[in-house]
C-alpha cells in the first residue's frame, strides 16, 4: 500500500479492518436468477474449453469469470447497465459529471470515430459484443440500429442477467447472450457487420489470437471497434517498460485478472498483419480521466461501502488498486485506446 496516494490509502484502508463477518457475506444481487455457486457453474459450462488450455490460461479465465460473477451485481446497482469508462470533456470534474450519460457517450463517440453509418441501408444488421458484461452495449446497439446482437462473456451470471434484462426490455428477439471464450468464438466466419469489443481486450492472454478472432467473425466490409486499456508506446530506444512501470501494472494485473499489457501500436501492427483496412487509433485517456475518481467516490458512499464488503474478496481487492489506475493514467503509463478498422470486401 505504500505506493498509493495518501488520501486514497486513508479512505480505503478501513476495508481491511472491518469485521470478517461482513466481508464473508456474499453480495446479494437482488434477482432470483443468480443464486447458483459460480465456480461450479463455470466449471460445468466451460469444462471442455478449459481442458484444452494451459493451467495458467485456465486459471486466468476462471478468475475473470469469478471476478465478474461477484462484482457485476454491485456495479449494476450503483452504475447501471454499462460496465465501461465514460467519455467526458477534458478537465471536467468527476463530482459534477453525469456518469451514466458519459458511458452512453462513450458508445456514441466510438461509433462516430469508426464511421459507422446512420443511414438505414448501411447501418449494421448483425452485431457481436465481445466481452458483453450484462449486455448494456448489446441492448443499446440493438435499439439504435434495429440490429440482431449476440454477446459473449466468461461470466455465467453476466450472461444470465443480460438475458433477463433483454427480456424485460422487450429485446429477447433481438439480443442473446452466452458463455464463450473470445479467443475461440462460437460463430462462423464472416457473420457480423459490426464487431464490438468495449474494454475486454485487456483480459486476453493472446492478443494475436484475439484480434484474429475479431477479424474472422467480421463480415466482408464489416467494422471492428476495439476499445481497450494499453500501456504507453515504447520509444525507439526502448525494448521494454521501466521496472517501476512493470511493477505498477503487475499489481493491477493481479487484482483484475489481466495478462501482460500491450501498446496501441502493438494492436495496430496486429491488425495490419491481417490486411485489415482503414485502421485508425486514438488515445482517449484525457477523455476518461474523471472515471476512476468517480468509481472510488461511489465505493465510499454508505451503500457502495457495505455492498463492496459483501461482494467478496476479489471485488474488494479490485477496489484497493483503483488508485493505481489513476496513478498509471497520470504518469502516462496507462492509455485508454480506441482502435478501429474495416474488413476488406
From TrEMBL:
<protein>
    <recommendedName>
        <fullName>Methyltransferase type 11 domain-containing protein</fullName>
    </recommendedName>
</protein>
<dbReference type="GO" id="GO:0008757">
    <property type="term" value="F:S-adenosylmethionine-dependent methyltransferase activity"/>
</dbReference>
<feature type="region of interest" description="SAM motif I">
    <location>
        <begin position="127"/>
        <end position="136"/>
    </location>
</feature>
<dbReference type="InterPro" id="IPR025774">
    <property type="entry name" value="PiNMT-like"/>
</dbReference>
<dbReference type="Pfam" id="PF08241">
    <property type="entry name" value="Methyltransf_11"/>
</dbReference>
<feature type="domain" description="Methyltransferase type 11">
    <location>
        <begin position="128"/>
        <end position="226"/>
    </location>
</feature>
<dbReference type="InterPro" id="IPR029063">
    <property type="entry name" value="SAM-dependent_MTases_sf"/>
</dbReference>
<feature type="region of interest" description="SAM motif II">
    <location>
        <begin position="190"/>
        <end position="198"/>
    </location>
</feature>
<keyword id="KW-0949">S-adenosyl-L-methionine</keyword>
<comment type="similarity">
    <text>Belongs to the class I-like SAM-binding methyltransferase superfamily. gTMT family.</text>
</comment>
<keyword id="KW-0808">Transferase</keyword>
<dbReference type="InterPro" id="IPR013216">
    <property type="entry name" value="Methyltransf_11"/>
</dbReference>
<dbReference type="GO" id="GO:0032259">
    <property type="term" value="P:methylation"/>
</dbReference>
<feature type="region of interest" description="SAM motif III">
    <location>
        <begin position="217"/>
        <end position="226"/>
    </location>
</feature>
<keyword id="KW-0489">Methyltransferase</keyword>
Amino acid at each position: 500500500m505504500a505506493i498509493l496516494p495518501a488520501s486514497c490509502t486513508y479512505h480505503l484502508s478501513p476495508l481491511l479492518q472491518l469485521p470478517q463477518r461482513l466481508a464473508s457475506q456474499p453480495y446479494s444481487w437482488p434477482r432470483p436468477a443468480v443464486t447458483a455457486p459460480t465456480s461450479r457453474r463455470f466449471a460445468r459450462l466451460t469444462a471442455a474449453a478449459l481442458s484444452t488450455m494451459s493451467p495458467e490460461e485456465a486459471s486466468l479465465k476462471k478468475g475473470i469469470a469469478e471476478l465478474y460473477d461477484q462484482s457485476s451485481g454491485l456495479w449494476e446497482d450503483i452504475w447501471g447497465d454499462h460496465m465501461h469508462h465514460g467519455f467526458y470533456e477534458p478537465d471536467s470534474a468527476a463530482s459534477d459529471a453525469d456518469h451514466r450519460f458519459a458511458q452512453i457517450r462513450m458508445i456514441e463517440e466510438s461509433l462516430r470515430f469508426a464511421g459507422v453509418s446512420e443511414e438505414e441501408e448501411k447501418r449494421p444488421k448483425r452485431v457481436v459484443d465481445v466481452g458483453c458484461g450484462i449486455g448494456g452495449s448489446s441492448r443499446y446497439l440493438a435499439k439504435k440500429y434495429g440490429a440482431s446482437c449476440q454477446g459473449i462473456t466468461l461470466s455465467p451470471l453476466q450472461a444470465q442477467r443480460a438475458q433477463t434484462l433483454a427480456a424485460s426490455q422487450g429485446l429477447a428477439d433481438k439480443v442473446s447472450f452466452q458463455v464463450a471464450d473470445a479467443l475461440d468464438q462460437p460463430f462462423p466466419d464472416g457473420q457480423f457487420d459490426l464487431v464490438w469489443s468495449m474494454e475486454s481486450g485487456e483480459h486476453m492472454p493472446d492478443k494475436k489470437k484475439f484480434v484474429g478472432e475479431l477479424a474472422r467473425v467480421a463480415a466482408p466490409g464489416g467494422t471492428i471497434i476495439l476499445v481497450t486499456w494499453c500501456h504507453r508506446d515504447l520509444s525507439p530506444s526502448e525494448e521494454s517498460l521501466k521496472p517501476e512501470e512493470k511493477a505498477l501494472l503487475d499489481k493491477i494485473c493481479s487484482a483484475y485478472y489481466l495478462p501482460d499489457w500491450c501498446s496501441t501500436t502493438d494492436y495496430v501492427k496486429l491488425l495490419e498483419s491481417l490486411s485489415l483496412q482503414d485502421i485508425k487509433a486514438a488515445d482517449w485517456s484525457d477523455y476518461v480521466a474523471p472515471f476512476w475518481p468517480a468509481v472510488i467516490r461511489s465505493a465510499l458512499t454508505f451503500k457502495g461501502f457495505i455492498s463492496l464488503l459483501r461482494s467478496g474478496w476479489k471485488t474488494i481487492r479490485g477496489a484497493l488498486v483503483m488508485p493505481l489506475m489513476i496513478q498509471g493514467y497520470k504518469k502516462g503509463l496507462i492509455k485508454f485506446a480506441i482502435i478501429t478498422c474495416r474488413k476488406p470486401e
